[in-house]
Amino acid sequence: MSFDLWTLGFQAVNVLVLVWLLHRFFWTPVAGMIADRQAKAATLLEEAEAKRAEAKVAMREIEATRKGLAAERDAVLAAARKDAESASDAVLEAAKAEAKTLHDTAKAARVRAAEALKETAIADAQGLALTIAGKLVARLDSTAAEAAFLGRLRQGITGLSDADRKALAISDLEVVSATEADAAAQDRIAGAIASALGTPVPLIFRTDPALIAGLELHNKHFAMRNSWRSDLALIAGALGDKDALPDAP
Predict the structure, then answer these.
(1) Cα 43 to the center of its chain, rounded Å
(2) What average pLDDT does this structure show over 13-22?
(3) Residue 152 covered by a domain
(4) Is 167 a domain residue?
(5) Whether 227 contacts 175, CB under 8 Å
(6) Within-domain flag for 101
């Protein structure tokens, strides 16, 4: 068996060129993309950790304020008891009234501080959720996401009463989507809505990126929410109601 040195040399050059091309146009960009995503994920985690640290600091400050107010209240009560030994019933009643006022003021201050902290935390969490949702939706299969939201929209329409569906069928309906729907997508949406209403209806298509993802149906007197933005708003509202249960109805 003999070797052709020229052929072997050309094959070696081809291998080196292939390795260089893979390194230049594949491995290096892929490694860069991975590093960039890791950096972005680390940044999000650091921001979340910073928010949690800020919340802990605020809670410690509130606790310190509460202890200070409690100590002040105890001091006032002790002074009132000492004065009551040599004072009249009227002075004693006045001291008790002053102590109660201080206690009520301290309680009101704690409630206000806790409410402010809760509202800030919910707002920050909702903002972070919107940011994460926006990043996630970019990775979704747009066709599958459209089909899922279109299915929910069809279920919402069929769940209406016959009278409501008839009213919708004769009104000007506006379909709002997070991204612009092409002609094929508009045909699919129109067909699904016509099937749910039992009759074809004229539709106006509008884009609202604030929805993040989804399909909503609007007219002058009606809105069928069906988007990530509405889902996140419902979650934020539910969290707010849950946090408020111990203190207020």
Answers:
(1) 18
(2) 79
(3) yes
(4) yes
(5) no
(6) yes
Contact predicate 152/227, CB 8 Å: no
Residue with the two structure tokens 């092409």: 182
CB-CB contact of 125 with 164 (8 Å)? no
The candidate with the shortest Cα–Cα distance to 244, out of 111, 124, 125, is: 111
Question: What pLDDT band is residue 207 in, cutting at 50, 70 and 90?
Answer: very high
Instruction: Say which residues have a Cβ less than 8 Å from residue 67's Cβ, sequence separation at least 6.
Output: none
Q: How far is 161 from 11, CA to CA, in rounded Å?
A: 74
Do 146 and 70 have their domain in common? no
Instruction: Identify whether residues 151 and 223 lie together within a single domain.
Output: yes
Q: Are residues 124 and 193 in the same domain?
A: no
As a whole number of angstroms, the distance between CA 44 and CA 20 comes to 35
Q: Phi, psi at residue 207, to the nearest 5°?
A: -110, 135
- Cα–Cα distance measured from residue 201 to residue 245, given in angstroms and rounded to the nearest whole number: 45
Same domain flag for 132 and 168: no
Claim to verify: residue 199 and residue 129 sit in the same structural domain: no
* Residue 91 within any structural domain of the chain: yes
Token readout for 60 is: 């410690």
Q: Which range marks the domain in which residue 79 is found?
A: 60-139
Query: What per-residue confidence (pLDDT) applies to 55?
Result: 78
Q: State mean pLDDT over 175-186.
A: 88
Q: What is the pLDDT of residue 176?
A: 92
